[in-house]
Structures are given as structure tokens and as C-alpha cells.
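Lab notebook, bench 4. Still working through the backlog of constructs that have no structural model yet. Next entry is a single chain of 125 residues. Request: give me the C-alpha cells for it.
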Amino acid sequence: EVQLQASGGGLVQAGGSLRLSCTASTRLFGDYIITWFRQAPGKEREGVSSINLSDGRTSYATSVKDRFTISSDYPKNMVFLQMHNLEPEDTAVYFCAADLWIGGPWHDASEYDYWGQGTQVTVSS
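Model written out:
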């Protein structure tokens, strides 16, 4: 079983940057798909960005494309989400999730079996 820990959240002004980290308890062999989700108060959990460790393919939500970058450090069992030009609308609790195989869209939270605890990101205007 994979245990995930998300970190790196905080309070930042609009236009600022943050880097979130997702650390796995076990070696993330190349078949895992790691995805960042976020959930704002009163809203559904939404997929932000995903990386397929088997081939490095990445996916992004339209709202964050060109501002966020997902990457991995395989030897350290870590996945990062670099966030630039943050907006108040990015305020949410951010979660990382993992699974070996998903049959549906990468942004469908029900596809993932392993979840980390959330890390709060607050962007002030």
C-alpha cells in the first residue's frame, strides 16, 4: 500500500508562487499515475495536474495550464507541483493521489485508491 504525504502549502499573495511536494512511502515504480487534486470550500474536488510515471506524460486542467508544472523525482519518490502566478481562485486544499492504473479520465477522483492528506493553499488578493 502506498502512503502519500503532501506538503508545501501556505499563504501567498496573488501573483506569487508555491511548490507543493508529494512524498510516497514506497518506491513509485514506473507504472504509477500521480495526480494533484484540489478542493475549495463548497466545491467539488477537481483534478489539477497529473503525471504518468511510466512515460512522463503530463496533463493539466485548463485553469492552471501555463501556470502550473508537475514533475517527479523518481529516486526520492516525490512528485512536485510548481505553481506560478497564483490567483485567489487557486485557494483550496490540495491533495495528491496515486494509482497503478486508471480506466477513466485522469481528473476523476474516483479512479484513485491512494490519497495523501491535504495541504492548504491560500492566495490573497
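Notes after review: The chain is about 0% helix and 50% strand. The chain has a mean pLDDT of 94. Flag for follow-up if needed.
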